[in-house]
Design goal:
The longest helix has 21 residues. The protein is built from 9 helices and 2 strands, in the order αααααββαααα. The protein has one domain. Helices cover 54% and strands 3% of the residues. The chain is mainly α and 205 residues long. Helix 5 crosses helix 9.
Length: 205
């Protein structure tokens, strides 16, 4: 469970990063983000960061991982990442799981300890896919997304979100990865955050 001062520290960092993008009307979008439940939602129902505020922290962890991955691999292949705008990394990483802002609800009598909270799931009035729903919600909230950002958010779960029986969907996924390095960067960062940064110590060895 987050302490109040920790909550506001993380929240302010998200706001500062979003404002640094220079996107028009970003203050309006942040006000919509506030109303959406983004800052208080858990990151999962019973796995990584399953407590109030977990989604916000996970999003920051993904951003930090993306910057670390970019900086590390730029020394090997600077050409791969040189075309990615910093603003796009911020938007795609912080908002890739926007659909979770109203997906989970705390069950009566739920625990609040790290990775022990018990949440239920509500698919709401827009029961579409994970990545697609995040994109649609962000556009509905008035955030202008580039094609690169849309693809990175849509495919941030990588092959896990691809219907292996749908050749068209497989083709779209491969094309997005090939055309936009941000897609791969966000995939890697999301995995690193959830499987390394946010992994409970007791599960190691």
């Amino acid at each position: 469970m987050l302490k109040k001062e920790e909550f506001f520290k993380y929240k302010q960092r998200v706001i500062d990063l979003l404002k640094s993008t220079g996107i028009d009307d970003i203050d309006y979008f942040i006000s919509q983000l506030e109303k959406s439940g983004y800052f208080t939602a858990p990151a999962s129902m019973k796995n990584h960061l399953c407590f109030e505020g977990g989604l916000m922290i996970h999003s920051l962890n993904v951003y930090d991982a993306a910057i670390a991955i970019r900086d590390t691999f730029s020394k090997i292949r600077s050409d791969v990442f040189e075309g990615i705008e910093e603003a796009s990394i911020i938007v795609a990483c912080l908002l890739h799981d926007m659909c979770k802002s109203n997906l989970y609800f705390k069950k009566r009598g739920a625990q609040v300890d790290f990775c022990k909270a018990e949440f239920g799931t509500s698919y709401g009035s827009l029961p579409i896919g994970h990545g697609e729903k995040s994109v649609v919600m962000l556009l509905q909230m008035g955030l202008p997304l580039t094609d690169e950002e849309i693809c990175a958010i849509r495919w941030h779960m990588g092959a896990w979100s691809v219907n292996q029986a749908d050749s068209e969907e497989q083709g779209n996924f491969r094309a997005a990865e090939k055309q936009y390095p941000l897609v791969t960067l966000v995939q890697l960062a999301d995995t690193a955050a959830s499987k390394i940064t946010e992994r409970p110590p007791k599960t190691i060895n």
